[in-house]
Amino acid sequence: MAVLRFYNTLTRKLEKFVPLNPEKVTLYTCGPTVYDYAHIGNLRAYTFADTLKRTLRYVGYPVYHVMNTTDVGQLESDADLGEDKIMIGVRRAAERGEQVTAWDIARLYTEKFIADRTAMNILPPDKLTPATEHVPQMIELIKTLEAKGFAYKTSQAVYFDVSKFPTYTELSRQKLEQLREGVREEVVVDSEKRNPADFRLWQLDQPNHAMLWDSPWGKGFPGWHLECSAMAMTYLGETIDIHTGGVDHIPVHHTNEIAQSEAATGKKFVSYWLHNEFIRVDNVKMSKSKNNFYSLNDVVQRGYSPMDLRYLYLEAQYRFPQNFTWQALTGASSARKNLLEQFAIVQYFVAEKEPMDVAEHPLRKKFASFLADDLNIPGALSIVWEVVKEASLTGIEKYSLLLDFDKVLGLKLAEVPTFGSFFSLEEQQGIRQLLIDRENAKKNKDWAVADELRDRLTQQSVRIVDTPEGPVPLVEEKTMV
Ligand SMILES: [Zn+2]
Question: Rounded CA gap, 33 and 318, in Å?
Answer without folding.
Answer: 21
